[in-house]
Amino acid sequence: MVDPDDVVKSPETNKVRKLIVLIVVIAGFMIVGRALQVNIAVGDWAGGLKVRDIRKGSGLEAKAGYLVRVHYRGMLPDGTEILNTRSRTSHQWRVGDGTVIAGIDRAVVGMRPGGVRRAKIPYTLHYGQFGYGDKVPPYTTLTFEIEMLDVATGPWIKSPHD
C-alpha cells in the first residue's frame, strides 16, 4: 500500500487533479441543467399534474380567461381510449371557467396553436374517488394527448370543421 505522504506532488499531478475536478463540476452542472430543463419542459405541476410537450406551437399562448379550441384523446393507464374529440368535433372553452376537468384546464395553459402536449392527470384533477360511470374507475390516473388548434382572447372561436 502506498503511503499518501510518499506521493510526490508534481505540478503535472496537480494539473491532472484540477482537470478531474473541473470535469466533475462541469458534468454536475450539465446534469443539474438537464434536470432543470426536463422539469421546465415536462413540468410537475401543482396537484400532481405532469405534462410533456410533444410539439411546440406558435402564436398566442393560452392563459386563464382565454378561449381555446382543442382536440384531445383520453386514455386509461392500460391504454384503453375513453374519449376522443376527433371522433366528433373539437372542444372549446374559456380556460379556467370550470367546464372541463381541472387537469385538462391546467394542462393547456402555456400551449400555442399547433402544439401537442401529453398530460398525466391524477384522479384528484378529474373524476376523483368516484370515477366516471363504467368508463373511468375510481382513483385512476388518466393520460390525455392534447392538440391546441386555436387560442383567442375575444369571442368564441368558429371552427372550420364544426
Task: Give short descriptive properties of this protein.
alpha+beta, 2 domains, 25% strand, Chitinase A, domain 3, 162 residues, 6-stranded antiparallel sheet
Please give the structural blueprint.
Elements: H1 11-42, E1 50-55, E2 67-75, E3 81-84, E4 91-94, H2 102-107, E5 116-121, E6 142-152
Antiparallel strand pairs: 1-5, 2-3, 2-4, 2-6, 5-6
Outline of the structure:
By secondary structure, the protein is of the alpha+beta class. The protein folds into 2 domains: 4-42; 46-152, Chitinase A, domain 3. The protein contains 2 helices and 6 strands, in the order H-E-E-E-E-H-E-E.
Describe the structure in your own words:
The protein contains two helices and six strands, in the order H-E-E-E-E-H-E-E. It has 162 residues and is an alpha+beta fold. The protein folds into two domains: 4-42; 46-152, Roll (Chitinase A, domain 3). It starts with 10 loop residues before the first helix and ends in a 10-residue tail after the last strand.
Percent strand equals 15-25%
What does the oligomeric state look like here? single chain
CATH class of the largest domain: Alpha Beta
Structural class: alpha+beta
Spatial gap, N to C terminus: 80 Å
